[in-house]
């Protein structure tokens, strides 16, 4: 490193390196004296680095704004470097505004980030015996958070309680019904955009109205919500996992669960009528109903299933000031156009139902 013009580096992108002391008298990285006055971006992928060395680089780069750690291993143990106490990892990033941590190996320890200037935060972690991440200091400018865990939102519960002032939140989960736990989610009074991505929800059996109930409960925690995006990334997830058994399950599920409401006025499979559920808005009262302006539903294969249609139907009937409702199916079956016409019909019929005199049309939500 001493042979390179480190003082001119703006971006440092390192992949597949072991950034530790070597057996000779020389160091692979002489972090303790190298300065990075121009460094704004540091990315480490599949690297092994001692936390004290990484900390020295961060402090040597007073302009470092973006820090990305992907599959990084921290070999430090409590007896080394003085940065780990009671099995906690502490990382001080005074100037960092964008922080990303993806599948890092921390041996079940708690990762504590001190980044008071943080604006964007992303954490994607595979399940482990024990994992948690927290913010040591307040980040008043934090606006955008992206969390991904196939073990559910419980993993990030304590973290989200320190981020309730954010305006954009993306949650990537294995299943909407099984993984979004509301006991761990706070109220988000300033949230304007919510993105929920489901990777493999077809494998979970939660009932036809379960997804609508979960999304409804989530929206109740977002009184100022303006945009809702829901992505069903089942096919993409299966392609990445290369699981032929799950792919066969998905094909069979999609074939057997196509909702007939997309083309007719009644679906025998889900026993649902084209008519809106009487009194449904009374069961999900909340400020979100008068603030949500845009809904986007994205799916990747075939036609919408019954539980997806029930979710679409619930949103069309309950969001009273919607301006845009987009359904993106990525197929050539024409179902996108058909379901969009249904959305307009459900919304209009629900508005008429709500304008009925008191005592008329009372009932329970049915999907």
- The largest beta-sheet arranges its strands as 1-3-5-8-10-12-13-14-15-18-19
Q: How would you classify the helix and strand content by structural class?
A: alpha/beta
Biggest β-sheet description: 11 strands, parallel
Give the radius of gyration.
24 Å
Write down the overall geometry. elongated
What number is the mean pLDDT? 77
Provide the succession of SSEs.
Answer: EEEEHEEEEEEEEHEHEHEHHEEEHEH
Percent helix, as a range, is 10-25%
* Span between termini: 62 Å
Tally of separate helices: 8
**Contiguous runs where pLDDT drops below 50 for at least 5 residues:** 22-29, 277-285, 356-367
Portion in strands: 15-25%
Number of strands: 19
Key terms:
disordered C terminus; elongated; 367 residues; eleven-stranded parallel beta sheet; alpha/beta; four-stranded mixed beta sheet; single chain
Topology:
Elements: E1 11-15, E2 18-19, E3 41-45, E4 48-49, H1 51-60, E5 66-70, E6 84-85, E7 88-92, E8 98-102, E9 110-114, E10 120-124, E11 132-135, E12 144-148, H2 157-160, E13 168-173, H3 176-179, E14 193-198, H4 210-219, E15 227-232, H5 234-241, H6 244-256, E16 266-267, E17 272-273, E18 294-298, H7 306-318, E19 324-328, H8 335-354
Parallel strand pairs: 1-3, 2-4, 3-5, 5-8, 7-9, 8-10, 9-11, 10-12, 12-13, 13-14, 14-15, 15-18, 18-19
Antiparallel strand pairs: 6-7, 16-17
Helix pairs in contact: 4-7, 5-6, 7-8
């Amino acid at each position: 490193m001493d042979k390179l013009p480190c003082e001119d580096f703006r971006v440092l992108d390192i992949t597949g390196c072991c950034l530790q002391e070597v057996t000779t008298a020389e160091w692979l990285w002489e972090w303790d004296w190298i300065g990075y006055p121009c460094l704004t971006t540091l990315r480490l992928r599949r690297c092994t680095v001692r936390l004290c060395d990484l900390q020295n680089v961060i402090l040597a780069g007073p302009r470092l704004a973006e820090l990305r750690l992907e599959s990084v291993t921290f070999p430090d143990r409590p007896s080394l470097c003085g940065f780990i106490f009671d099995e906690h990892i502490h990382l001080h990033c005074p100037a960092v505004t964008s922080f990303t941590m993806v599948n890092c190996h921390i041996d079940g320890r708690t990762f504590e980030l001190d980044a008071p200037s943080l604006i964007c935060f992303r954490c994607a972690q595979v399940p482990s015996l024990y994992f948690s991440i927290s913010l040591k200091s307040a980040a008043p400018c934090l606006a955008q958070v992206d969390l991904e865990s196939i073990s559910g939102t419980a993993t990030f519960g304590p973290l989200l309680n320190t981020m309730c002032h954010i305006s954009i939140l993306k949650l990537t989960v294995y299943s909407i019904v099984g993984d979004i736990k509301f006991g761990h989610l706070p109220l988000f009074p300033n949230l304007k955009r919510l993105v929920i991505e489901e990777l493999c929800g077809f494998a979970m059996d939660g009932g036809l109205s379960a997804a609508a109930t979960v999304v409804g409960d989530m929206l109740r925690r977002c009184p100022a919500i303006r945009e809702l995006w829901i992505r069903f990334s089942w096919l993409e997830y299966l392609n990445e996992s290369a699981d032929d058994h799950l792919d066969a399950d998905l094909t069979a599920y999609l074939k057997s669960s196509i909702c007939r409401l997309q083309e007719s006025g009644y679906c025998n499979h889900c026993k649902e009528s084209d008519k809106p559920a009487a009194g449904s808005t009374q069961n999900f009262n909340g400020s979100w109903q008068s603030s949500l302006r845009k809904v986007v539903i994205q799916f990747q294969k075939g036609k919408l299933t019954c539980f997806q249609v029930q979710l679409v139907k619930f949103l069309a009937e309950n969001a009273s000031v919607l301006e845009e409702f987009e359904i993106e199916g990525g197929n050539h079956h024409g179902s996108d156009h058909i379901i969009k016409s249904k959305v307009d019909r459900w919304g209009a019929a629900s508005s008429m139902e709500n304008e009925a005199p008191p005592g008329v049309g009372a009932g329970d939500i049915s999907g």
